Amino acid sequence: MKTTLFALLFLMCTVSFAQKTDSLKLDFQGELRARYEHSNGQFRAGKSGSDQLLLFRTLLHFRYGSKKVKVGLELQDSRTYLGDGNSPVSSSFTNVADILQGYVEVKTKPLLRKEGEATLKLGRQTVSVGSKRQIERVSYANVIKAYTGGHYLEQNHKKDELHVFYVVPIDRLPKEKSQVLGNEFMWDREMWNQHIWAVHYRNHRPFTDRGPKWAEAFVYGFDEQDTFRKSSSNRFYVTTGLRLQEPIKENRFNYDVEFAYRCGSRQAENDFIDGAPLAVSAHMLLFRAGYTFSLPLKVNVAFQHYVASGDKDPSGDEFQQFERLFGGRRTDLNNTSIHGPLTPSNLSATGLRVELLPEARWDARVHYSYANLASATDAFIIGKYQDTSGASGRFLGHTLDSRVRFWNQKKTWTLDFGASLFILGSYTRAVRVNENETRNIAHGYLQVIKKI
């Protein structure tokens, strides 16, 4: 916390030295959000019975400075109510009155093209790039992830983007379940033993107007080490990937294809006594292709296949699970929070999605997935089950997720509600044979957002 406060003082002093020819301006944005969720059962290990949660999140974002130098401060207050011992709450649900962002943003000279413009952002900040599958400022989760470090962004007249950043993640506190349920206050802090770096280039319309809108190439690095007080898996990952995307447009085909391969090393256990490291070899693939029909509701129908590798031999000398580190999952897979059985790790999910995008103040989405484990011997990540023998098979089940949103003309109010159904498959029923709950899981939520 001291680091953040000193950084904020430095940032404020920096703005005071902004060029006198630039007028100083204060900008403010904020958001109030309330959401109620209910599930009729549980699919996680050791959980039973129905569950409910009432969540509140407040964001206040101040930006002060000139055209060349700005200081930003964003406050986050996230609280939950109605939860109990069976609620799968964690530090991603509660974060009382903390600093989400505290940064200085400086206009600087571009590295690639003279006609472009570039900014360097230093301090505590949120990061979202491209599809947000590799790193994201989460929107649906009640607590947003933040990082401390530097983020360089360059853009040119063609809308190409170059992102280069080096950051450490923020450890969201508190972590104890009783403290989370009690909405206890505790300052977040930097995780100095973890380092994230990336180079991500986004090329806008690289070929012709009929080609993809975006072609992207990226390299992400992640390095983690033990500290004096805390052990770790000593993960060292390098993830490289490509993406091609053509967004939804009436009477046109749309697609989104992203592939990433990860290599590196890690320890098998989170322990101070390190053994021989495991070689890492993992991958993910998202393939989505659809067509938008010229109908009053502007209907888009798309096929989707999502694969994130799993560990084929948990006792072997290679780690093959594609861990979800800092990217999102709700947009591609399912409604999350106390639900969300699918995550892009040890997953093979094939399905269909239908989106309604009328020229009006509402939209809707329905998504079906036939979900399997990528490896029968690796873990069902969200459910926290694992059958290392593989005898339970791979079929997780059928998932059906929906969302409908309404907003006013100025988009200052948004009403968002949705429902999900998880029909348990042969694997999920087999590993839950001794559990009280083996029925299918229905989930629903209602959310109201007010921009201020």
Automatic annotation (TrEMBL):
It comes from the Bacteria. Residues 1-18 form the signal peptide. The keyword Phosphoprotein does not apply. Pfam families: Alginate_exp (PF13372). Keywords: Signal. Residues 26-431 form the Alginate export domain. The keyword Secreted does not apply. This is Alginate export domain-containing protein. It comes from Neolewinella aurantiaca.
